Amino acid sequence: MSSFAGRMKEYPTLSLDRFDRENLHARAYFLSHCHKDHMKGLKGPLMKRKLKFSLTVKLYCSFVTKELLLSNPKYAFWEDHIVPLELDSPTHVSLIDETTGESEDVVVTLLTAGHCPGSVMFLFEGAQGTVLYTGDFRLAVGDAARMECLHSGDRVKDIKSVYIDTTFFDPKYHQIPSREACLTGIRQLIQDWICQSPYHVVWLNCKAAYGYEYLFTNLGQEFSSQIHVNSLDMFKKMPEILCHMTTNRATQIHACRHPKDEEFFRANRLPCGTTAPDGIPLNIISIKPSTIWFGERTRKTSVIVKMGSSSYRACFSFHSSYLEVKDFLSYIGPVNIYPNVIPLGKTLEDVTDLLKPLCRKHNEREEIVYKPLGTLKGTRKRCTSEDSNDDLFDEVSTAPRWRKMRVVDLTKISNNAQPCSPNKDSHDTDQMYSLIQPCPSAHSSNYMDCTESNDDDDDDEDDPEQSPVPHPPPPSCTEMPCSKLTRLDSSRSKAAQPCWEKFFKAEPVLTDESELDNSQNSHNTATENTASQSPELFQDEDEDDKSSVHMTSSQSTHISDAGMESLSQVDTVLVQVDESKAVISEQCNRDGIDTEQKTEEAVELKSDSQVSSDFELPPTPGSKVPHPEDLKDLYRKLAAGEEMVIRQIF
DNA sequence: GCGATCAGAT
DNA sequence: CACATCTGATCGC
C-alpha cells in the first residue's frame, strides 16, 4: 500500500496520488491509476471546494483512468478538470500559482505501468531535473529498456530521482512467476474443471479492485465464455474488456462478489447466488489470486496450490518482484531512489539499505568518468550491482539501442490505453517503437542481474548463487500473455514496448502440457506433448515435500521444444542445489532465459534513434502549441544536463 | 451529521 | 498472510 505522501522533492508544487493535507495546495495533480489507496482526498470536500474556485487546477492521468474514475459519480466534480494524456507523448504542463501568478513549466510523459488498466508512471522533465514517479507497477525484467521515453537518442535519460513502487522489494519476492505463467496455471486449472460438466463452475475470488481484467479477458477468450462480474459500467467504453465480461450469471466462470462471498462459497454457493436451473448442485471451485502467500513459501510451489477440496490459490501479482524492481532501477541508474511503499514486515531503513546500491552515486567511478560528457548515459552501466561488477560485464551488451520502426498496427486492434469513445480516435498509434538489441549472443541484463546477486555485499541474502548455466539458444517466444496476433504476426519485430494492450490480446495455443494431477479427459488443445519435461503447474498444499513439484514459468507455454529442453536441463541441474535455495536459483535462471528470449525478440542494431515524435507534443488545453524549435532547444538542454531557464516559450 | 482515522474482516 | 476495499467504532469539528 502506498505510503507516498504526494509530493516529490524536485517539483513540490505538484501532487501525485495524494490529494489531502499539503497536497490541497498543489498547482496540478497526477493520478497514476484508479486504486483507492492512491486517491486519498480525491473526493473530499476540501478538494471539491478548491476546484470550485480554481480555473487552472487540473488532474492529469491516462484516458482509461479518467474513464474508470468518472464511472464513480463521487468523482464527477472532477470532470472538467481532468486532462487525459496519451502514453509516451511528452506534454507541456504549466504549473501556475493562482494567487501570485507565478508559474513553472514541466514536461510530463506517461509511461505504461502494467499494474491495472490505465495505470501509468509519470516522467517529469524540467528545471529541477528529470524525475520518475512510478506509481504502482508491474514490469518485467528488460521492460525499462523497451521504453522509448526513458531514452534520449540511444541513451538512457539522466534521471535524477525515482519514486518507486517497492511493494515487493524484498528478497522474499526475489522472483514472481510471470503473468503468462500464472495465467497458464489458472487457465489449465479452469480447463480441467469446467470441461467435466456444465455444472462444474469456477469462482475467481478476486479483490474489489482493478487489475484482474487481463485475467478475465484472457480466460474469456480462451474458453469462449464470458466471465460473470457484478458490474460492467466502468468498462462501457472499453470494448476489449467489455466483450469478455457479462452480468449474465449463466456462465461457468465467475468473478462476481458479495460481502459474504467466502461464506457463500463454504456453503457451495456462488456470490451471485446462481444455482443450476434443474436443482442439480453446482460443483464449485474457488481460485484466489495471491502474491504474499506465495512469497511466504520457503519451499518450491507451483503457481497453483490446492488449499482444500475445492479451493486453490493462484500466484498473481500486480507489482514487480524484487528482481524486476532491481532490473528497472539498475537500468535507469537514478541518482536518488525513494520508496513509495514500505514492504510488509520491513522498515524504511531496510528498504533504503536495499535501494542504496542501486543509486548511481553508489558507483563513483562511473559518475566521474561519464558525467562530464553528459551524453553517455546509455553507456553508464546498467550496472546492477553496487560494486565490483563494473568490470565483469561488457557494457555494450546491455546498453539498449533504439530504432524507430513501423510495424503492424496492433494497437488499433486492442489498444487499451484508450477507451473507445466515439469522438476519440486518431490516436497516435500508427507507430510503435522497438528496442533493438545489439547482439543475440550477448547475455541479457537479466542474466547479469542474476549473477550479480551473488555479491556478498549485495543485501539480498536470499539471493541464491546463480550458476552460470549455459544459455539455451534463444527460442522465439513472447513475453506477455500476448498472443495469437503476435504469433500470426510471428515476425520477430514485434513491438517490444511494454503496454497494457498486450494483455488483451488472444492467447497462443498451448504448446506444452502440464500434466495435471487431476486431469481426466480434459480437452486439451495442446498439440505437442512435452510433459515429461514440463514443470508441474499444480500442487496440493500438503505436497510441499514432494520434490517433483516446481514452480512453472513463462517459458513453459511459449517456448519451442528446443528451448523447452534447455529449460528443463536448467531446472534439473539447479534442483540439486540446497533445497532452501533451489527454488530461487531455478527461478532466477528461468527468468534469465525469459529475458533473453524477450530481448532476442527485438534484436537488431541501429542507432538512428532521434525520433521526431519527441517533439509531437499535445498541448495542454488552453495553451499554445509549442514551437518545435523551442522544444528542440529545451530537449537539447535537458539531454545535455544544462541548467534551464524557462522562458515563456509555449 | 459528516469526515478522518483505525481496527478488523475478507 | 494481508496486491485493496469495505465495514464499523470512535473521535473531532
End-to-end CA span: 38 Å
User: Average pLDDT across residues?
Assistant: 67
The secondary structure category is alpha/beta
**In one word, what is the shape?**
globular
Helix count, DSSP H or I runs of 4 or more residues? 18
Rg for CA atoms: 24 Å
Spatial strand order of the main sheet: 5-6-7-8-11-19
SS elements, strand count = 22
Q: Are there runs of 5+ residues with pLDDT below 50, and where?
A: 367-536, 543-626, 641-650
Q: What share of residues are in beta strands?
A: 5-15%
Helix content: 10-25%
| Biggest pleated-sheet summary | 6 strands, mixed
Architecture overview:
This protein is an alpha/beta fold and 650 residues long. The protein is 25% helix and 15% strand. It has helices at 45-52, 63-70, 179-194, 213-222, 239-242, 261-266, 292-296, 322-332, 348-355, 364-370, 395-398, 410-414, 445-452, 484-489, 555-558, 561-575, 579-601, 628-640, and strands spanning 14-16, 28-30, 59-62, 82-85, 91-96, 103-112, 120-126, 129-133, 151-152, 155-156, 159-164, 200-204, 227-228, 245-246, 253-254, 283-290, 304-306, 311-315, 336-339, 401-405, 432-436, 538-540. It has a six-stranded mixed sheet with strand order 5-6-7-8-11-19. A six-stranded mixed sheet has the order 15-12-16-18-17-22. Helix 1 links the parallel strand 2 and strand 3. Helix 13 (445-452) packs antiparallel against helix 17 and helix 16 (561-575) runs antiparallel to helix 17. The radius of gyration is 24 Å and the shape is globular. The model is unreliable at 367-536, 543-626 and 641-650 (pLDDT under 50).
